[in-house]
Specification:
The complex is a heterodimer of chains A (198) and B (171). With 198 residues, chain A is mostly helical. Chain A has helices spanning 2-20, 23-60, 63-78, 87-100, 104-121, 130-141, 148-156, 166-197. Chain B is globular, with a radius of gyration of 21 Å. The chains are: A mainly alpha (198), B mainly alpha (171).
Chain lengths: 198, 171
């Protein structure tokens, strides 16, 4: 699936640029986007190192375990496949909390570690597990309480009260995340049925 | 915004203090984590490069902009504000492009306009679905992603519709 999406963007993009006469732009874009990814990894790298360093302290001191135990009953409803008090729950929780605070960059390392942890529980390493999909649905729906970037953009554009959209944002993000989770459950049940009968 | 400024230092303080309290070799343990971060960054770099190259080729081909123009009459008919259409389409694909689009909308239609508010809410309450799926699944080598893309994109769509309703009720 990832293979198809990736190829789709490239093939359709280049073919359409021939059609619309945008070839010059695409020509430079291919090279410059590759160097753009280096810039991106350079901005992510220090934050990633810093947070994984701090998280390692939290893990060694048992703080992560305490957090996972506290949040376990709630998260367990969403992730029934993950064993109780498993490390993955603490990581998922840290990722969600960081996203809620609008600290997307700090959320990424926790999310990647959570995926790694869930992959170790996964029976078939090529196929996405149920918990992984639920986790990514929460991530893409991005439950954000303080949308920091948006507020700063509104401030820059001269809003009298740049944070006035926060309430609307919270309502929207929770409702769309809830919708995503319900849909995730429905798809899981349909998928499992198809898989069992075929 | 200000709350976020306090929370971050508080979290760092809390983690380090608890580590010291539990007699963990905080410095050494921190270094081990940093090393892990280093190798993890190197590990996700190929995925990031692949995603950025393919998404950028697609974006710069102008296909999306052209589609938006053709779709306009349909959305006008549905009473959907077409001004936010480019943002709505870009949001699941590219975080940086949709931020630029948000900035355009805010400066063209005004921060406190209906369009400006809806655009802000959409940008703030959903994330770059395709990038996240590519990065996270790519990082652990999962190839078959089942129904995750479908659910992710439908959740994004629901976010757009909900934001229109919520903003028109609240403001």
């Amino acid at each position: 699936m990832v293979n198809y999406i990736w190829a789709f963007f490239i093939i359709v993009g280049i073919l359409y640029s021939f059609f619309s006469g945008n070839t010059d732009i695409i020509n430079t874009e291919i090279i410059s986007s590759a160097s753009l990814s280096v810039n991106m990894i350079l901005t992510i790298l220090p934050i990633m190192c810093l947070w994984l360093g701090l998280m390692n302290i939290a893990k060694e001191s048992g703080l992560l375990e305490i957090i996972s135990k506290k949040i376990s009953p709630f998260i367990k409803i969403l992730f029934p496949e993950i064993p109780k008090n498993h490390e993955a729950l603490g990581l998922i929780c840290s990722n969600i909390v960081m996203n809620m605070l609008g600290l997307g960059n700090a959320a990424t390392p926790f999310g990647l570690k959570a995926m790694k942890s869930m992959q170790s529980l996964n029976k078939n390493k090529d196929i996405a597990s149920r918990s992984m999909i639920t986790f990514l649905v929460i991530n893409t729906a991005s439950v954000t309480i303080i949308p920091t970037t948006v507020i700063s953009f509104r401030l820059a554009n001269g809003a009298s009260n740049p944070a006035d959209i926060v309430l609307a944002s919270i309502i929207t993000t929770f409702l769309s995340c809830l919708f995503g989770l319900v849909l995730d459950r429905i798809c899981y049940i349909i998928w499992r049925r198809k898989y069992v009968y075929s | 915004m200000y709350i976020a400024n306090i929370i971050l230092p508080l979290m760092v303080l809390g983690i380090v203090m608890y580590g010291v309290y539990k007699k963990v070799d905080v410095f050494d343990v921190f270094i081990v984590g940093v090393k892990e971060g280093l190798s993890m960054s190197l590990q996700i770099f190929p995925t990031i490069l692949a995603m950025i190259v393919s998404v950028n080729i697609f974006l710069k081909s102008n296909l999306l902009q052209d589609i938006t123009i053709y779709l306009q009459p349909i959305f006008n008919f549905l009473n959907f504000p077409t001004e936010i259409l480019p943002l709505a389409i870009l949001r699941p694909i590219s975080g940086s492009s949709s931020l630029i689009m948000l900035n355009n909308i805010l400066s063209t239609y005004g921060v406190d306009s209906f369009i400006g508010r809806v655009a802000s809410v959409i940008q703030g309450s959903t994330d770059t679905t395709i990038y996240i799926l590519g990065l996270y699944f790519g990082s652990v080598g999962v190839k078959k992603i089942k129904y995750s893309l479908l659910v992710g994109l439908l959740a994004d769509l629901s976010c757009i519709i909900i934001s229109l309703i919520v903003v028109s009720i609240l403001f």
